[in-house]
Amino acid sequence: MSDSRTWSPPFPLDLGAVLGPLRRGPGDPGFLVDGGVWLTANTPAGPGTLHVRRADAVEARAWGDGGRWLLDGLPALLGAADDDSAFECHHPLVADMRRRHPGIRLTATGRVWDALLPAVLEQKVTVVEAHRSYRELCLRFGTPAPGPVEGLRVPPTPRAVLGITDWEWHRAGVDGARRRALVAAAQVAHRLEGAFELGGEAGRALLRKVPGIGGWTAAEVAQRAWGDPDAVSFGDFHLAGTVGWALLGRRIDDDGMAEVLAPYAPQRHRAVRYIRVAGVRKPRFGPRFSPRDYRAM
């Protein structure tokens, strides 16, 4: 059984750009692009699968116990709760990207745990390592997604994470620090969902109460779970360099990034989205960091 809904957004909508941050690598078993977008989720009502496609309007269909919940959240997922009316561009590049990409809005999934799990896995490792671990955990400890698509998986629930043994963490390539953070978060996951209701800095502060969850991880969750327009991922290995080369033509650190983004507060993350879509890359001055495989240690 499935439910469906049609929704006409009252603003320009770039479906791929809005939902793209929810994808955790090309092998994400909970995200599939086939002319539309397939998403899986743990919701308060249970697991669900959502398919969204853009025609004259947005056409959505959902399956599973969480299907109705996902359909109810469709407008917010596609940026309807995102208010960018007060955003001011303070740099020609940002102004140009805002003009050229009017369909970029900030998604709000309403699901803290589903954003937190992959964010913790991305702490202090390469993207390749993090995506590999996330895929492994979804395939082994997630559940088959409801609906017609074979191979889609719903991410592991907090209860499933608490049942993962040390050997299974090792097999998935997850080191001790990240597994301890995930276990600590899973133990209080029901409380952490309250970060969505708090929003903003208060929501990020609630997440940071969990040992092993710092500012970077909290920002990554806030960007996706409630579309926080000011949640900058300070501590990211590449972000300060990207912002520096895009806006100043030189390398800067996190302190420099805080200074150059200060005029955009309280919408600094929105400015970063426009900077990233510009595709500016900092020059490479050394060999690429090699992924580690904890499974061989």
In a nutshell, what does this entry contain?
This protein has 297 residues and is an alpha+beta fold.
Commentary on this structure:
This is DNA-3-methyladenine glycosylase 2 family protein. Keywords: DNA damage, DNA repair. It contains 16 helices and seven strands. Among the domains are: 2-86; 112-225, Hypothetical protein, domain 2 (Endonuclease III, domain 1, Orthogonal Bundle), CATH 1.10.340. Helix 5 packs antiparallel against helix 13. The longest helix has 15 residues, at 127-141. It is α+β, with helices and mostly antiparallel strands and 297 residues long. It has a five-stranded antiparallel β-sheet. The chain is globular. Helices cover 43% and strands 12% of the residues.
Major sheet: arrangement of strands:
1-5-4-3-2
CATH superfamily of the domain at 112-225: Hypothetical protein, domain 2
Distance between the termini: 46 Å
Number of strands: 7
The overall pLDDT average reads 95
Classify the secondary structure makeup into a structural class. alpha+beta
Q: Treating each run of at least 4 consecutive H or I residues as one helix, how many helices?
A: 16
- Low-confidence segments: none
Please bin the fraction of helical residues: 40-55%
Rg, rounded, reads 19 Å
Tell me the β content. 5-15%
Q: What is the ordering of alpha helices and beta strands?
A: EHEEEEHHHHHEEHHHHHHHHHH
CATH level-1 class of the domain at 112-225:
Mainly Alpha
CATH architecture of the domain at 112-225: Orthogonal Bundle
Q: What is the CATH topology of the domain at 112-225? A: Endonuclease III, domain 1
Please tell me what the overall shape is: globular
Largest sheet: 5 strands, antiparallel
GO biological process, one term: base-excision repair, AP site formation
GO cellular component, one term: cytoplasm
Keywords: DNA damage, DNA repair
GO molecular function, one term: alkylated DNA binding
